[in-house]
Amino acid sequence: MNLNHVHRELRLIRAVWGFLACTLLPGSLLAQDTDAANAPALWEFRLAAFGRSSPTYPAADKNNLNLLPLPIPVYRGSFLNFGENLDQVARGELSETQRMRLGIDLNFSFGEDSADIPVRAGMPDLNFLLELGPELEVKLDSRTPEQGEFFLALQLRAGVSFDGLDATSRGFLINPELEYRRDQVFGGDNLLSLRWKPTWASEPFMDYYYEVEPAFATPERPAYDAAAGYLGSKLTAALTSQITEKLVFGVSASYYLNGSAENELSPLFRQNSGASIQAALIWKLWESERRAPR
User: Fold this and answer.
1) CATH code of residue 270
2) What is the pLDDT of residues 126-152, one digit of tens each?
3) DSSP alpha helices (H): ranges in the chain?
């Protein structure tokens, strides 16, 4: 593993914590008991052993392997929640009913040195990318969490990349998402989530990954003008298991379908499909006496 890349990833993680304490655990870690006497703590501090293998960018032909120890703060407020979801770093509740939730979601992607991506050699690096925007989630049935529930979410996120403290707008993404979520699968304290998410992106976002400006063109990498449109789809299966009161294990796997994407003719578009897997073993080290709001 490239040690410079590892150090760069650790610096990026510290930057994320400075912006908004974040986490890398799939799914809800602890059961949310509606009984106030049994409610989870408002604050927790956890330590995670985290591993992930995933494409360096959508439709890339190179995967990154990250093995990191991570301290994880967790907060469960009446408006803001963070620390309990791998695909949604933070969630803000603007309005919620029994069947509908309007919130704010945040996510991020690690960057990569272009020198470590052969097809991008000589091009600008891919920097840390933050995504933030509103989400409307609708419950599609009347089943209980133990029976399995279906949800439809409509997400709109703005993308911003960071080169140190220099921020650059990268346009926006539209993500409808269909999810099946079930508690207590396999007869234990487990949470299963199955998700399908197609994505459409604006031109600035597509430029970030697929544009080749004339200054960076080579005989093997001709100039290419990226366009807005369909980016691809992702299928994800995630399982979180409460092993003991203080120990949780989470694993998720995703399969990417990039065929028929708007910019599949870009020389930087390398594969019509890809896969990622990530896992985390979490120890709860401390929790506050104050309980989370119902």
Assistant:
1) 2.40.160.40
2) 999 999 899 999 999 999 989 999 999
3) 3-19, 203-210
